[in-house]
Structures are given as C-alpha cells and as structure tokens.
Design brief:
By secondary structure, this protein is an alpha+beta fold. Helices cover 26% and strands 24% of the residues.
C-alpha cells in the first residue's frame, strides 16, 4: 500500500505545464505583487507620526514687549532703504494641529504694510506683524 502512494502521480509528473491559448501568461512582476504584504490600516502609520510630531505653543507677549516691538517696527519703517539687517522671530501656526513653530528670518525689510499688518522682506518673505515675538539688529544698538 505504501509503495502504491509513492507512485500515484508517475503518469503526469513529467508532463509540461498546461498553457492557455486564450490568456497570456502573467508577467513575473505582476505575480509577485499578488503576494506583497497587505496594509489593512492604510494611513495609520502616517497618523501616528503626525500625532507624535511636536509643536510649540504660542507665547503670550506682555504689553511692554508689544510696545517695544512696535517701537522697533517704527524705527525699521523710518530706515527702510538703508540696508539695515534685522532678524525677526515669529510664530507660524501649524495647519494640522494646535501650536506651531517659531522661525527666525534675517535680511532687509522692503516695506511694512500697515493695511495687511505684515512685514515684507527683500527676499519676498511675508511676516504677519501679530505673529512677531522678537526683532534684533545692530540698528537698535542700546536703545532696547
């Protein structure tokens, strides 16, 4: 009996693989895709990374700091065109979650738009005035 089981496929073991005349063979690259891992939770890993991404909380400025910033902006407005380098630190709110990031940008101020409440730099960077937390530059000297 055991001997019979070992030879039950002898009649077909050496036959060629059947090939369809109606359907072409699948390319190996497509065959491999059938066995690729399945991501049941599409986007889950990205959501975890987004949740883990840290943001800074916007600091509330005192009235004294706001007055100092206004004085510095006034001085900058008076000296536009004299190529005074300033470094402006401002808050950029995050589009996806609470908080944001503080960014420092250095360069020449091209103009201060009082209607739009923005500071426009020579390199076309636009900084919202209400987001500014600090302004530094040699032009301020020991004034502040």
């Amino acid at each position: 009996m055991e001997n019979q089981d070992n030879h039950s496929y002898d009649d077909i073991i050496n036959l060629p693989n059947p090939t369809s005349t109606k359907h072409p063979r699948m390319p190996l690259s497509d065959r491999a895709a059938q066995f690729s891992p399945f991501a049941a939770l599409t986007g889950h890993e990205a959501a975890i990374k987004e949740t883990a991404r840290r943001t800074d909380e916007k600091l509330m400025l005192s009235d004294e700091v706001i007055a100092e910033l206004n004085e510095k902006l006034k001085l900058i407005a008076e000296t536009i065109g004299t190529q005074q380098v300033v470094r402006i630190t401002y808050f950029v709110p995050d589009n996806k979650k609470a908080g944001g990031a503080y960014i420092s940008h250095a360069g020449y101020v091209k103009r201060i738009d009082k209607y739009e409440h923005t500071v426009v730099m020579e390199d076309k960077t636009v900084i919202p005035s209400e987001q500014i937390s600090d302004i530094e530059g040699e032009m301020f000297g020991d004034m502040f």
